[in-house]
Amino acid sequence: MNRRVVITGMGVAAPNGVGLAAFSEALKKGKSGIRFQPELERLKFRCQIAGQPEIPEEMLQEYFTKLELRGLNSSGIVYGVISGVVAWKDAGLPVGPEAETDWDNGIIFGTGILGVDKFREAIHLIDDKNTRRLGSTSVIQTMASGISAYLNNKLACGNQVTTNSSACTTGTEAILMAADRIRSGKAKRILAGSCSDSGPYVWGGFDAMRILPHQYNDDPEAGSRPMSESAAGFVPGSGAGALVVEDLESALERGAKIYAEVLGGHINSGGQRNKGSMTAPNSEGVKRCIKNAIFDAGVRGDELDVINGHLTATSMDATEIRNWSEALELKAKDFPYINSLKSLTGHCLSAAGSVESVASILQISEGFIFGNQNSEDLHPEIEEIASREKVPEKSFFREVNLVAKASFGFGDVNAVAIFSKFR
Question: CDD domains from the entry (predicted)?
Fold first, then answer.
């Protein structure tokens, strides 16, 4: 079997917008979600800015019962459940106690570090010989697959329910894993996505590595500068994105709205060789991933309207653009438009691929290309490859038919998904 795969629902909890409407408006207006974090200042972090979704108390009560909220101390689970339930409802699928087990429905929802604040709480209680106060949810909040388990309590999926983890590639990988399962006829629909916790215990290691910018603590919105000559490191972020990935036949049968089609994609690794390492990609692996994704999707590189790159605002940005140019055999005015959501949200780590996939698909479904904030001083090596006009600073409306979404993660792991307008 080789079934067609479409996106029929989406949800998002991003630093610059929770919910599709707020997120879409933020993309079009160039609204940043990067803010000064007093806690990071108190803890003497060099970088004291970050992107973190704002979840009001009334929203928590809408998605969690009073019992679930008792002792809930995992921001990643909060973001993941909100975005996942929104996506499921958006697809017109049942949520809550009235939903019965559906053996055709599944969940592939990834994470990197989950429940780190709950771990900290548990460690203190154990050290104080007070394990009775750990509570009955400490295990599910700190196991990686806790996010999928929380979601399935709401959705009653009877097909594969699992959690993947591949650093910054996690979200894009989850979507492609879901698409593969549906193409093969093993499921009809899968909630795919990823989440990441917020806070100093997630971001501290990166601050210690000195790969976060410290020059913009007084000007947070200027801190994340993908493709800029003055880029000084990635701003940490967090959140979740969720997409209902569905068999086209099933979607048409039930009259679901279709945001886009998943034409294809590819997942690989550079093997941490040929200048690839734990923290840097092997360019040959990246180019192979791009070429194989294009081949799998059955399109040509010159048909791409937009590349939504990984582009984290580090020294690797120029290398990534060069890899795209060589893989597609395109440059200058022939190069596709390219953007990085991280200028508005920071780097959402394991949530990045899913949040950015939602942004990529919104460009297709709503007909616009969002801009790159803080790219006014475009890196000269990038300008040599992609003309200035192909790195827009502001959003603009335009028909978008084909988008490539890329994620390149720690451990030299790569994923590229190709989304298209459904026809």
Answer: KAS_I_II (cd00834)
